[in-house]
Structure formats: C-alpha cells, structure tokens
Amino acid sequence: MTVYDGCTAVASSLPDIDLTPGGFTQVNGILQSYGLSLTEGYVRIERIGGSSPFYAYGVINDQVTSDGSFVSPVAWQNASPNLLLVPGIVESARYSSELMLANWSTLGKRLQLRYVESQSGVVMSPVSFELELKAGEQKLIPDFLDWLRQRSASGLGQPGAEHTGVLFVSAIDGNCQQVFLGARISTKGLQRHYGVYYPAIPAEQFFPGTAWIFGLQQDEENRSNFALVNTGTTDATADVFDLTIHNEVGAVSNTVTGITVSAGGWLQLNSMLANYAPQVKQGYVQITRKAGNNPFVAYGVINDGAQPGQRTGDGAFIAGSP
Fold it and tell me: What's the whole-model pTM score?
C-alpha cells in the first residue's frame, strides 16, 4: 500500500499485508496510521505476490454521528472515458455539496466542467468553467456552488435558495483516464454532518433504454429517494419514462407513466415508495425510456429517517443496474 498526500502528492509506503485465501483486513484511520499525519489523500494498492484477484474499498466516517459512506475502488489503469457525470449537486438551507477530484497520472489534466441546474426535470442555467489538476493532485472543494460564485460564474442563483443539478466533466486535452471524481453531500449547521457520497459515472455506463434500482426501503426508520438524469449526449430531446414498482416478492404494485426529464436535466422523486406505492415497505423499480433519444442515469438513495429531519439523515447511494 502506498499513501499519497492529496495536497503535495508525496508518496509514503506502508508495510506489506499478507492475506490468506478468503482473508480480510482493515486499516483504521489510514491517513494517520504508521506515523502519517495527513488530512486528505488517496491509496494505491498493489498485489506483489500470489495469483488470486483481490478487492479493496474505503469508508469515510462522520466523527460525530459515525455515519459512513462506502468508497469503491478504481483500477489504477482505468478506462479512458471522454465524459464523467456527477449525478447530483445540491444546495439548500439544509444541504451543501463537496466536489472531490484527483489526478493520479504523471501528467497534468485540464478539465472542462459544466454544471447544469434543473428544477423538476427542466434545465434552468448551465454554467461552464475550466479546472486544472496537477500530476498527483487531489482537490476537495467544499460548498461547490458557493465556490463557483466566488469565481464569478454567471448563471447561478443566489445562496439560500434551493439548487439542484448535475455536473458534466470532460478533458480539454486527451481524456479522463486516471481521473477520479465524486461528490459528498453534507447537512449544514453549527457542525457539518456527513450525508451521502457517490462517484461520478462514466459515459460508458449510461443506460440506453432500460435500468433497474434495487434495494429500496420505506418504513419507520428509512425512506428512499429516486433520481433520473437525461444526459443530453445525443440531442436536445426530452426523455419520457415509465417507472414500474415491484414489491419484495416481485409483484407489480404500481406503474408511474409519463415522467419527463429535459436534455441535461435532473429529477428526484422523494420518498418514492411512500408516495407511489405506500403499501410497499421494500421493493425495486424498473425504469423504461418510452420516448426520447438520450441515454440516461438512474439511482436511488436510502436515507436514515422516515421523514426529512428525522434521525441522522445519512444516505446510502444505490447505483442503477442494466
């Protein structure tokens, strides 16, 4: 394992770890283990012996609530996506969004970022800007929309209002290989508390016509939100969807028709099971694009608390399945 300081890209080698077949180990507080004292960074894991495949992941924990978010691994030599999409950027009196970027290549990256704000699936005000990541650099941008305002980005509404949208990222020169991108949503207050983390989705994983969201729950402790993004990567047409809700044994409980999302737009259905299939406590949704030409993204978020403001509000991201 090699830990990289996210500010300086200085690398520190950690002791080797032996894993037996089926073995598991966890390094707690890895940025401040083995004599390190880092506030941000990333880790490279290399298999140096043996022939079996392995898996690795991270968990970011809130120091107050202990809520944690799962951070999935990225292949060191990942694919070369031409477009990355962060499926939800939000700002309100209650929530703020932090953008996370890293460039683990040996070359600097110039990125084109385009934030597309939308309300109820209708696009409002795209904002474009450039950002440079040095070789090995990690950049964490808290209050991302406020960060844009400080740089005089035109088209953004005033702070305090509710803002929702998606972020499209592409490379100005070359591609987005060895670039990491993700977002963290936190609740505002005297102390910011962790909400939910989700990674960017490469264009190769956009859905052409059908997708599924599994594992949704609605009970006295949890609620499930559901979101759709019309990527707008083919043309300017709106996408129209049918949503078929299944209960835990697979029976169809309800079909919601005519859900329309403009090109580049984002739409979230809050407490989806409670509002569209109240008899279903756990279930899943089939998404079918009935009209429009653009590939789309679909995901769910299970939140702690049957209603907003209850319990911690912590969320777990559920990526769509083809």
Answer: 0.89
